[in-house]
Write a structure and sequence with these properties.
It contains 13 helices and twelve strands. By secondary structure, it is of the alpha/beta class.
Amino acid sequence: MHKFLVRLFAIILVVFGGLCGYSLSRYTERFFSESLPDSLVLTNSIAMILLGIFVGYILAPICGAIVVKAVEALASTLQKLPVQEVLMGSIGLLFGLIVAFFVNLAIDSISFGAIPVIGDYLGALFVIISTVFLGALGAWFGSQLVYVHGLRTLVSSNDLVASRAVLLDTSAIIDGRIANLRESGFLEGVLVVPRFVLQELQLLADSEDNLKRNRGRRGLDLLNDLRNSRDVEIIDRHVKEVGVDAKLIQLALTMPAYLCTTDYNLAKVASVQGVRVLNINALANALKPVVIAGEVMSLKIVKAGKEPGQGIGYLDDGAMVVVEGGKRSVGETVDLEITSMVQTVAGRMFFGKYLGKAATSRSAEELKAIN
């Protein structure tokens, strides 16, 4: 195939060079009509034709190699694209060529004969350029329509269609809560996993580190469950950016789509670039129960705190509670009163005052009176 394309292009360039040489000889004959003897007219034509053929023959290997590389790159790119994108791109190419046909009719009506030497070929050149440009534009536009209308949509019981696409990054898949969010109905739309995210999960699953290997396998198991329930789409789309995070951001902007992640830094960078981010950790923080100063609750003291007399306990959502005077009851459930709350990067941390060992029969007023 490689040799065939090179030879074919060489023949085309040699013929084109000969035609250009012949055209140049006709021009020189008109330009030197008074000084050029009749005996040299035929010689001049032959010389110009041979010169054009020689130049075409010299340029053929270079141009042929460029064309072959372009064809191979195009074939490699098409192999990486999903069938739906290739099909829609072909339809777009057809419409682009139809538009180019009418544009070329207008170009044919323009006379380029007044331009010396190359005037006879300018019209054909512009026709080729318009055909290639409009065809490529139609193919690109058609391929983009796949991500507007081609993704599977979810239809609810009241026939409302949720058509938004949600890109999943590696951290959101490994986290595992995405499945529960999906089942509960809080996450609507089509879940989309790019091929490069799947490859990153596979690398984690093949890692020598036990923790990374377990996380990667858990992510793959989750994807299999979602795929079996037809809640996720795997797409194979080439993105020029380097790095998984950069590719996700670029893909989210191109489709367009929401980006679902638990990565704080990725969420911030994506938001700055205009990507709509669904941060699972932000949702979890927003759904944490509201605890206010003065509220009385029961809590198990897990360990002693850093300061003398302090005990440490944890709420159901994982928030840490520092209990003044709670060290005496490590391992026991006590009653306490929340005094203040501090917001940190890791989450919320509460401070409380020890009221005594837990007694379900006591009222809040009685518990406060103990202290």
